[in-house]
Amino acid sequence: MRIRTFAACSLALMLLSGCVTTNATLLNGTTLPAGAMLEPEQIAIYRTADQVGKSYKEVAILTSTGDSTLTDMAAFHKSMQERAAKVGANAVILGATREPSTGVELASLVLGLPSNRKSEAIAISVDGLVPPPPKPKKK
After folding, report:
1. Closest CA to 45 of 75, 78, 88
2. Which of 34, 58, 71, 126 could make a disulfide contact with 75, Cβ separation 3.0–4.6 Å?
C-alpha cells in the first residue's frame, strides 16, 4: 500500500513539475487593462526587436521557468502568450533562455529533482498591430 501511495505521489509531482510558470513585472507605470484582452493565441511572437517593424511600448518583463526534461519551448511560448494577454500586451519579444548545466541534469536524474530551464521575454504593445481572429471555442 505504501508503495502505491509513493508511486502516485511521485507521478503527481512529475506531472505538476512539467508545467511552465511565467511571471510578469510591469514596466513604465503600466497598469493592467480594464477592458477586453486578447486571447493568448492572438499574441504575436518575435525573435528580435528588429522583427517588430513598428513602434511599440514595453509593457512587462516576462520570466518563465519549467522543468527542462518535461517541457519544450512551445510550452514556454504558450505560457508567455497567456501572461502577455493578461497584462494587456499584443506581442512578445523573446529573450535569452538558460538551460540547466550538465551537472544539474545528472543530479536531477539521480535524485529525481526538477532541472529548470529559464527564459525571458518582453511583453509589448505594438502600435497598429492587427491580431489574428481568436480561434472558436470548443463546446
Report:
1. 78
2. 71
5-50: pLDDT as tens digits: 444 444 444 444 459 999 999 997 777 776 678 999 999 999 999 9
Amino acid code (one letter) for 1: M
Residue owning grid cell 526587436: 49
Q: What are the cell numbers at 27?
A: 514596466
The single-letter code of the amino acid at 67 is D
58-90 per-residue burial string, b: 16 or more CB within 10 A, e: under 16: bbbebbbbbbbebbeeebbbbbbbebbbbbbbb
- Three cell numbers written together for 77: 511560448
The CATH class, in words, for 2-126 is alpha beta
Query: Which alpha helices (H) appear in the chain, and where do they start and end?
Result: 2-17, 73-86, 102-111
pLDDT in tens, 82-137: 999 999 999 999 999 887 667 766 666 677 667 788 999 999 999 988 887 877 77
| Domain positions in the chain | 2-126
Q: Can you tell me the distance from the alpha carbon of 27 to that of 58, in angstroms, rounded to the nearest whole number?
A: 7
